[in-house]
Amino acid sequence: MIGKSMYDIDTPALVIDLDAMERNIRGMADFFRDRPAKLRPHAKTHKTPELAQMQLDAGAIGITCAKLGEAEVMADAGIRDLLLANEVIGAQKIARLVEVAKKSDLIVAVDSVENARAISEAAEAAGVRIRVLIEVDVGQNRCGVRPGEPAVRLAQEILKLRGLLFQGIMGYEGHIVLNPDREVRESECQKSMTQLVSTREALEAAGIPVEIVSGGGTGTYAVTGAFPGVTEVQAGSYITMDARYKGLDLGFECALTVLTTVVSRNGPEIVVCDAGMKAVTREFGMPESKDTRMEVVHLSEEHGKLTVKDPGGVPYRVGDKIEIIPSHGCTTINLHDTFYGVRAGKVEAVWNIAARGKVR
Amino acid sequence: MIGKSMYDIDTPALVIDLDAMERNIRGMADFFRDRPAKLRPHAKTHKTPELAQMQLDAGAIGITCAKLGEAEVMADAGIRDLLLANEVIGAQKIARLVEVAKKSDLIVAVDSVENARAISEAAEAAGVRIRVLIEVDVGQNRCGVRPGEPAVRLAQEILKLRGLLFQGIMGYEGHIVLNPDREVRESECQKSMTQLVSTREALEAAGIPVEIVSGGGTGTYAVTGAFPGVTEVQAGSYITMDARYKGLDLGFECALTVLTTVVSRNGPEIVVCDAGMKAVTREFGMPESKDTRMEVVHLSEEHGKLTVKDPGGVPYRVGDKIEIIPSHGCTTINLHDTFYGVRAGKVEAVWNIAARGKVR
User: Fold this and answer.
1) What's the pTM value of the predicted model, to 2 decimals?
2) Nearest CA-CA distance, residue B34 and chain A, Å
3) Is B267 in the same domain as B232?
4) ipTM score assigned to the predicted complex
């Protein structure tokens, strides 16, 4: 496909506007260039080692993964500094975790002494030492220990474990990254980061050095990334953006669309295309039509239905290709096996989404 | 994994209760055994040739596919009688369609003379004849020609095309298959099938023989399958069912769950598991906990959060495995690469979901 027109791509297909994506990568890298905090982009969004490498080339200090399977893919692609920002539970996964640690500088999150002990034992048996961050619950009410003393007690236990290397703490303010009210988002993020950094201070007061304080997402990077005491930010969605994040007006561009073919015209007001819920997710609402003269009003499994605002004005015929902007980039990308990178209407890159479906 | 306990499966994982699935397959086959209409199960649900073969072995006359990529997988697995129940648009796809027709008795839906001509030309050039059904819009307002005369005019054009073999009509009452009110569902389905069968009559009155009249889904199979003049029904979800279809009380069992591991207990009222939106979809609402003492209240990308109704009564600890029932089976299955078939708690079969992600 390389060198061909984007309209020669068979559909539905995941398309990235390379100019927009590169501006997003540079824009986020610029924000962190002269700050104490650094960027560790989250690969859960793109799931593609080639894109992770571009983020590293632009200055990111490492890569964040959500799942062990993603970390395996990134480590196999030669990326060394990896944070697996979730707890890894059970003997099967811990055995795989140790294998990833043998070929990378892996960091993993823990929130219980039982899990820390299980990882330490497996690491020791394999002759490796695994770096760990304690996950602190900074208000998301999901995983993590409570801020302050509970984190100190867990750190003291981790320091006794010979298979682990305590590196610091992480806290994800996931409950607020998508809050549409900028003031609320920023003030709530300040609260979360205050909890995280006060936990750092409690650890240091107990004589425990803290190298890494990791947090943040695309919706809060500007607060988290400027917060004294935070050392790195895990933003992911900024690279592609999506229709929902676009509404937050964060200074990044929508680089991601699903290219889809008109398969039926059911009268002058309706355009039916070949992208449904199996090509673009709708849990965050309907995708947007890139051509603003139309609106996506329904997705069934394999069809999207658009209505035409001015029936006289839209010339699309069966076989024509149109673009829709996902409302949720991360889950939409996870439906596809291939990214088509496009510049000035021509295909310039085709990437395998190697960590697609790596939920384990 | 075969022979091991289901609780040895790493998570999140897609599990089928084989006893329940086999009862569903038998139950639907029994309904059609002595009727004029026959069953052509929709493979868009399971996307797995081994399960399609079980449906054929139980008496189904053929298999329905939503996408060309699914039809390719089913034809490659040796399944011959295939209905591709959507329009196939564009030269790239039509070239693939012809290849499928060379190795199967493919039927494809059309709703325009332009598309019929393009398929006919490609078929003729390849020396095959492709069977076609005209899709009739029976109220879904998506693809298809209007009932009656428009279908007759299109059929007359198709009869002139030497690469096509006109076989009949199809109409999908997709706008009502999930209507929770049985009376409304049945009466609306009667209206749709009246439109479809009156189109059959109009064709026959014009001297055009109609071999196939295809329609229906799981929510309406009992109406469509008993409607005089309908020859086959395309039900799909009945094989696994899901939490949403379960509410329709159709006589089939929920055979599908996502097995997931407890990764954190954030206090006595909260269980956090490792199945999020990338392992179970939520566009039809939250999945259900199989253990009814808990309720799934939130899905983020890689985590599910359940609340415990009686905090004293739920013993789950980190590392324990629980099951959740998808609200939408078809899109959830499409997130996974593997089905684990389980009987009496032991893994009996492991199937590759070969048509997963085949959206083209």
Assistant:
1) 0.97
2) 32
3) no
4) 0.96
